Amino acid sequence: MILESFDRRTIANLEAALERVCDGRPDGADHELRSFIADAMVACAKKGQTTLGALTEAGEAALARRGISDRKQA
To answer: Does residue 1 fall inside a structural domain?
Structure first.
């Protein structure tokens, strides 16, 4: 479980970064999208990059990759 893997500060940063990336997006409440972004952020945190900035960047990069992938499928 994610709560056992990280300290409180990292978990708070993960939550805040996810909100930053998803806030204001029309699809920002979509569970599948949020899960995709969160997975990228967790992978980042597991590499030791646990700052709010690093996690936000990881989420934005995942979102960009997803957008490219979505366009290729269309």
So the answer is: no
Domain count, the chain: 1
Q: What is the pTM of this model?
A: 0.86
| DSSP codes, the chain | -HHHHS-HHHHHHHHHHHHHHHTT-TTTT-HHHHHHHHHHHHHHHHTT--SHHHHHHHHHHHHHHHHHHHHHH-
> What is the pLDDT of the chain when averaged over all its residues?
90
Q: Whole-angstrom Cα distance, residue 10 to residue 50?
A: 6
* CB neighbours of residue 56 within 10 Å: 19
